[in-house]
Specification:
The chain is an alpha+beta fold. Helix content is about 30%, strand content about 25%. One of its GO terms (molecular function) is protein serine/threonine phosphatase activity.
């Protein structure tokens, strides 16, 4: 797929231990550790607009980065593809830059700054997220010969460093945690679906002269629209791309959350809305718990979602379905 860009579009360097899964079903360096899986399947459209990435040894020897990206609009498949290849590298660059600034400030002010402490590391990664996402958006905007005015992509990215999970969310893809309880494995939703109908999101869009309302045939799904015309009607309030709507309240600022991993935490699942539209958090967790082989967990989730679309939707509307599953505890 030819893309002309003034910014480099790169894959993760060899040795980082990565899997990039794009719309063509292509995997890059697919030798990943046990307990990790990634799978994507095209829906009813001509092109799969989802992408996903899973990187081992990210930021530290035991660090892991997972991400799913759901494109929308005419060229949404290009947006998600660019992000899957560029954002992991950009995030690393921003983290190194933040660390260098903090270290230089400490040395010039005779301060004692320990950049390796877990607390400072988390703060630096959070700042890196906040710097990388808007710059990623700018790089997409610089791509030549492709119109991204009404095309974009969501993103949910989870970073593990030691026993800490740092999650950045942009749009309506979702991350959940499966954790042990007295009732078995229960779920904790790690992200909030950022949609135009969410009160704070709707206020921002309307405050920027955008409109938020649902179509008659979708009464429970408010969308974001331009002030005077019925375009584009996007279903998320934050995303990469969609540059016309960036003037009317759609933003590329992620919501960042933190989770401290405990011995009861079993797995995380990141998935696009093609999964969550037909499967509940609990259903996904049950599917993951039921697999015999951890490496088949993501495929089992996607397969169940595809069946769900066929049984729950009365017309041919199956969405692209993509999932990443990462088991948090090493086997004895």
């Amino acid at each position: 797929m030819g893309i002309s860009s003034s910014a480099p579009i790169a894959v993760i360097p060899e040795g980082l231990g990565s899997v990039i899964y794009d719309q063509d079903g292509m995997k890059i360096n697919h030798q990943i550790n046990s307990g990790m899986s990634i799978h994507s399947q095209r829906g009813c459209k001509a092109v799969n607009q989802d992408c996903a990435v899973l990187c081992q040894g990210y930021g530290s020897e035991d660090g892991v980065l997972c991400g799913v990206f759901d494109g929308h609009g005419k060229n949404g498949h290009l947006v998600s593809k660019i992000i899957s290849r560029r954002l992991p590298l950009l995030l690393l660059d921003k983290k190194n830059a933040v660390s260098e600034v903090n270290q230089n400030f400490s040395e010039s002010h005779s301060a004692n700054y320990d950049g390796s402490s877990p607390e400072n590391e988390l703060l630096e990664w959070e700042e890196a997220y906040m710097n990388a996402f808007p710059e990623m958006d700018e790089e997409i905007k610089m791509v030549k010969k492709v119109d991204f005015s009404f095309s974009g992509s969501t993103a949910v990215v989870t970073l593990r460093q030691g026993d800490d999970l740092l999650i950045a969310n942009l749009g309506d893809s979702r991350a959940i945690l499966g954790t042990k309880s007295e009732k078995g494995v229960t779920t904790i939703q790690l992200t909030i679906d950022l949609k135009p109908g969410t009160p704070d999101e709707a206020d921002r869009i309307r405050g920027s002269n955008g409109r938020v309302f649902a179509l008659k045939d979708e009464p429970g799904a408010p969308r974001a629209w331009l002030p005077r015309i019925y375009t584009p009607g996007i279903a998320m309030s934050r995303c990469f791309g969609d540059f016309v709507m960036k003037n009317y309240g759609i933003i590329s600022t992620p919501v960042i959350t933190h989770h401290r991993i405990t011995s009861d935490d079993v797995f995380i699942v990141l998935a696009t809305d093609g999964i969550w539209d037909v499967l509940s958090n609990e259903e996904v967790a049950s599917i993951v718990c039921g697999v015999e082989n951890e490496e088949m967990a993501a495929k089992a989730v996607v397969d169940a979602a595809v069946k769900g679309w066929k049984s729950k939707v009365s017309f041919n509307k199956c969405d692209d379905c993509t999932a990443v599953c990462y088991f948090l505890q090493n086997k004895d």
